[in-house]
Amino acid sequence: LRGLRVGDPTDPKTEVGPLPPGTHPPEGVVKEAQEEGAQVFQAPLPPLPEGGHRFYPPTLISGVAPTSRCLREPAPGPLLVLLPVRGPSEAVAVASALPQTTAAAVWAQDITVALDTADRLPQGLVWLNALDLLDPSGGCAGGAVDTDLDEALREFGCPPWEQPPKVDEPLSPLVTVDDPGDPELAQAVAAARGAAPGWGRLPGASRARVLREASAALRGGHGTPKDGDSDGSLQRALLRWAAHVERAGGAVQEVPGGRALVTRRPLGVMGVAWGWPRPLALELLPAVLALGNCVVVVAPPGGVGPAQQLRK
């Protein structure tokens, strides 16, 4: 901890900068953890640059319980909490339960274990055997690392600038959704949530095979205009997205110091209202299924022909 360079955030050699604007030092969290029996290691602050008043010494906390406040309420600043785990599965479970985490890092000698663990983490940005690299931000779970560099530039000697005026318009609710209290709908949502992790982790080739089987199940069925698939558009869409998901994959981008692997991650469970006269569900269903999502479709009365055939 003493070897970390604390100072001006505009200096490229600085490793620990000030706290984000508007935040308070995590002294209360550190004191509470120490009272609970945790060990606290803290390095003294060096001479600070002029104008810097939001610095906090690098701190390491070990020996805490999983229910400790320092884990339930992550505090800003150079504060690291050490929590031992017994394997990758337990590490993923602990990381999934942490609130407000946007990035993670995995250290492992076995690259297969590291990649599998990184894929199971809910964070949108995961580093392998490194930390805080200049790489693209993730697109899920708020996977972006906020450096607050713009605020630091204003405080440490850069020319001031004025915030442009904003139009403050009150926001009104766009739509209100009432709970229908339908037990079948609750069962459908629960089933979709239970199937989402397994379906999303299937490789693209496996999902494509299921979509082709679904298209084959619709073949020979007698659709009606009310079903919205009288012309076989759902069958063709299932085959088209089955071919698409087999080719869809991640991408490798070159970044300073190495390469970043960008993968696609499903959103989870989606709800679609099967409206008439335009059956939007027929347009969204194959796409969201192909990309690893689970769907709850609310169909109009009588418009469940394709759904019944898929169920069979």
From TrEMBL:
Residues 3-139 form the Aldehyde dehydrogenase domain. Gene3D superfamilies: Aldehyde Dehydrogenase, Chain A, domain 1 (3.40.605.10), Aldehyde Dehydrogenase, Chain A, domain 2 (3.40.309.10). InterPro entries: Ald_DH/histidinol_DH (IPR016161), Ald_DH_C (IPR016163), Ald_DH_N (IPR016162), Aldehyde_DH_dom (IPR015590). This is A16A1 dehydrogenase. Transmembrane segments: none annotated. One of its GO terms (molecular function) is oxidoreductase activity, acting on the aldehyde or oxo group of donors, NAD or NADP as acceptor. Pfam families: Aldedh (PF00171). Residues 1-27 are annotated as: Disordered. SUPFAM superfamilies: ALDH-like (SSF53720).
